[in-house]
Every structure is written in C-alpha cells, then in structure tokens.
Description:
Chain A is an alpha/beta fold.
Amino acid sequence: MKKLINSTDSVVTDALAGMAAAHPDLRVDLAHKVVYRRAAPTPGKVGLVSGGGSGHEPLHAGFVGHGMLDAACPGEIFTSPVPDQVIEASHGVDGGAGVLHIVKNYTGDVMNFEMAAEVCAEEGVEVGTVLVNDDVAVKDSLYTAGRRGTGATVFVEKMTGALAETGAPLGEVAKLGGRVNARSRSFGVALSSCTVPAAGGPTFDLGDAEVELGIGIHGEPGRTRAPAAPARELTRVAMDAVHDDLPLSGEVLVMVNGMGGTPLVELYVVFAEVAAYLREKGAVPARSLVGNYVTSLDMQGFSVTVCLLTDQLTQLWDAPVQTPSLRWGR
Amino acid sequence: MKKLINSTDSVVTDALAGMAAAHPDLRVDLAHKVVYRRAAPTPGKVGLVSGGGSGHEPLHAGFVGHGMLDAACPGEIFTSPVPDQVIEASHGVDGGAGVLHIVKNYTGDVMNFEMAAEVCAEEGVEVGTVLVNDDVAVKDSLYTAGRRGTGATVFVEKMTGALAETGAPLGEVAKLGGRVNARSRSFGVALSSCTVPAAGGPTFDLGDAEVELGIGIHGEPGRTRAPAAPARELTRVAMDAVHDDLPLSGEVLVMVNGMGGTPLVELYVVFAEVAAYLREKGAVPARSLVGNYVTSLDMQGFSVTVCLLTDQLTQLWDAPVQTPSLRWGR
C-alpha cells in the first residue's frame, strides 16, 4: 500500500489541518474534529450538521459553507463520528432556530446521531433529522438495516441548505430533506476495490475482468459480480436499477459520481450514456454534476444518482452555494 | 485493464458528448473536437484557445467559460491536437481582437500550435502565444525539449482569461501570460502508473514500495525513483525542488493537484505539509486549489504548483470565473 499520508493514525487530523490551511472561510476544530463555517452560528437560521466516516471526500466537510452545511463531523476512515462530535457541532451551529442532522443510513451513523440528538434535546437544542437512504442496490447490507445512504446526500445537503438560508423553520427544512431523499435514487458500480489505510490492503478482491454491480461506498458487496463491459452496458444496469425503483420522467437532477480513483474523462463517457438513457425514457437531464463528490478512497468506479425535480427543488438547487467543493451564484 | 469506456477509439468523442450533455453553457463541435463557450466569439475581446492531449481532465475543456478559455482543443489521449482543430477554434473565438494560444511545452503541441498560428496569420487572424514550461523536475524529457508545461497552465489560463475579459489588447494579455508562467514552478510525484486505454496496460512499472519523483503528466520519467515515504517527506522533496529554482517568499498561490487516482483526503494531507513548508520559508499561502486539475488518467500521486503573487495577479485570480471545473464570483 502506498498512500500520501504521514501515518495511518493521523490521516483524518492531518487532512483537517490541510482543509483549515486551504479554506479561510472554514473554522476547523481539530480537537473535536468538527469543520464549521467561520461565522457559525447564524442567528435565526436553522443550523445544518452532517457527518460520517472519512474517506468519502469531499463529502461532508467539502460542503460546509453558505447555502449548504453549517458544520461537518468527520469520523475516522469509514467509521461513524462519535456522539460527542455531533453534540459539539450542534451547539456550535445553533443560532436559536434549531439544528438539522443529515444522516446517511448506516447503523453506526444512525445510532450515534440519535444519541447526540437526545443529549442536545436534554440541553435545550431542538433537533430534527433527515435520514438518507437512496441506494437501490440492496435491501440490507453489511453496515445497514434498510437501504444505504449515498449520492442523494449531496442533493439533500444542497437543497435543505438553500431553504435554511431563507429563514425557513426547522420543521419545514426537515420535511424538504425527506422529500428530496424520497425523490432520489442511486446505484454504484466498482471496477476495483478501495484500500483503507489502517487495513493496508484491498477491502475485497475483484478479478481482472470483473466488476461489482451495486457496490457500497465502503466496499460492501452489491447485488452481483459481472464481467467487465462497455460503459454503455454498465450505465444501463445502473439506470435500469434506478428506473425500476422510481420511474424516471420529467426534469431530473443527475449526478455521475466518481468513486475516487476514476478519471474525469471516463465519468463524462458515463454521463453521455446516462443522458441518452434519460431521453429514451422521456426524462430530461435538466441539472447535473459530473465529478468526485461521494467517494470511496481510491476505488475505481462510478455511481449515478437521480432526483425527480419540481420547480421548488430546481430553485433550491440553483440557489447560490459557496463551499470548497460546490460553488456557484452569489 | 478495466475502464469506463465504450471502446478505446471513441473515448474522447464519447467524453465530449458527455460534456455537451452536462454543460449547456458550452458548445461542443464533435466533428472538429473543439469545445467553445456557447456565445463565442465575444466581439472586441481577445479569444483564448488552449488544448493538448486528453487524459488530463479537467484541463483544458473544463476551463472553458467566462473568465477563462474561449475554446479548448482536446487531442486523442496523450496526443497533441492537430493543427486543423486549433485553426478551427481560433476562427471560432476571434472577435476581432486577436487570439491567444496557450501551449504546454511538449514538442508535438508546440509544433501543431505553431503551424496553426501560421495559417491563422495568413488568413488574417492575429495570434499570440504563451508557452507554459513550469515543471522543474527535468531539463529535457521524453516528449519535450526544455521544461515541461504542467500545473501552471491552470494559473495562466485563469489569469489571462480574467485580463482578457477587461478588454485588454492581445499583446498585453500575452505578456501577462508569460509573466504568470515565469513566476510559477511545479513538481510531481507518482505512486503508481497511469494506464492509457489504447495501450491496455500500465505505462511504467513501479515497485510496491517505490515512488517516482519528478513524474511527467504522461508518465514520462522524472528525476529518480525513491522508496515510498510519508507525505511530509515527499512534499518536502517537491517543495525543495521548487524553492531551489524559484525562492519562495511573499504571498503565493499554491495548487496541490491530484494525478487522477488519488483520494482528496490525501491531497489535503499534502496541502497541510505544503502550507507548513511555505510558512517555514516565510511565504504565505494566500490563495489555493486542492483537487484534480491537471491529471494523468488514473495515476496515483500529486503535483504542487506555486506562483509568486503580485497585487495584479491576485486580483486576476480572484476575478469571477464560470467554467465546469473552476467557478467563483459572478
């Protein structure tokens, strides 16, 4: 294993120090491992907190900033953040209008965010929660009861973030988050395994001419292995899985996401196939993201996430955002 | 070899179709393989054209848009664009104020852009050229007489793009480009080889515990091979090479660039070391980029590029930019 790290123990802390040095709009609490907007809390605004294991960058810390998250709690690599981190972050972003926790559906994340929410409630901080569970690949998985939360997290964080900036109350922001999740679906394909620094070797073995269909973002098994195939066929498998679960129609937001080790030129090849598939079904790729947003360390592969847009969701997507890894408008 | 492609012959065209589908602000001429701003040419503005082999995405097509390039000419993977592409693009962006060619110093690129510039001149289009040659690793290399052009290309394209938006004349924009290049230096480190689709296997072999110091963006050899080492040591080698060539002081713009297969979490680890190194030398990392900007397909590794800022360069860097892969301001 070769990695650009100083030691397997210090990866997350060292990377957070790098974020602090690179992004003056962020304030990084290295002791508690929380990344805040510099000006948090914003009085009168619902505070948005997300978090999860590290190794999925830019998720979540790369989405802290105006129009998106107020704080992110990175756990160790592929390890849930601890309740103390989430409690600390929730206090740090509470501007008097309550705090929304955005949680990907993994057993550890759900448990730790729940514990944190209980403590916050006892301490007088109102907390709402959005659970993201968009991955159609498997019903239950290695780390999850029910569906896994993957790419739709980016959509939920962006759209709830935009709504929170308007001063909307906690209940409304939470409800919107649930609606975005309900209208979104994902499916991932791996060409190679990731390598977790502390493990020192690949999480799973995949043959030279094999792919994993329905891969999870920690290398958890998907639906099945299959022979490697052209991008067109792999894309069709992913899109069929999405479409079978949530028929695609109207204007959609679509993300073609790299797993961390896949060149951008290949992601654009996939996007062309996704766009063609959508048009074939009578849907319109009205908004899009192509790049690395919810990664799995150095894994090669992609995931596709689709959200059925409404006028409100399109407006919230288009609203200004200023974070390290998503920024537009002003 | 497993890749998200349909065929080794169609990678570039298929990816361009994906760019066209994803980015409504771009106009993609698939026949000539040129990516334009939708509204090109802009009357009275110097038109900026760059290009080079594909496989370095988002360079260059990801930097087409307001405040940066007017057109990009992607060649086949790691292959220079042909003169006809550059001629076509130059005509397409000529708004009457002339056209600037931004060329990375590789023998094929230089020759083909020169041929295109001659034809353009005969046809009455005024052309200026900026040659980028920022890589301090080697004096000459496999594909280059003199220094290679790498990361500084992003700085040159951004800053000349910002100046061109103000209506500055061709001579002034070209001169600025030369100044940015002269004040910038780069050095790259590879942990693994890239795999070119048409070749079907790794470009070079690197041992399990070995890195290549001074790597080129096509996998050309660098200065030397060395044992794998902590990020702190690899960063120091890169920064020493830069500092030995151009003493670092004052405010600097610094890019920690991923080679395509390296997770973002590792790039932030490197950035923390770069920032510490700069402070040690009395320099200030006043502006930064951390991510994949000048890649080498799926290579694992990083490069660092530093530019000594002036007030003018900082202003041009901060000016609004709206491209697929760099955007801020308005």
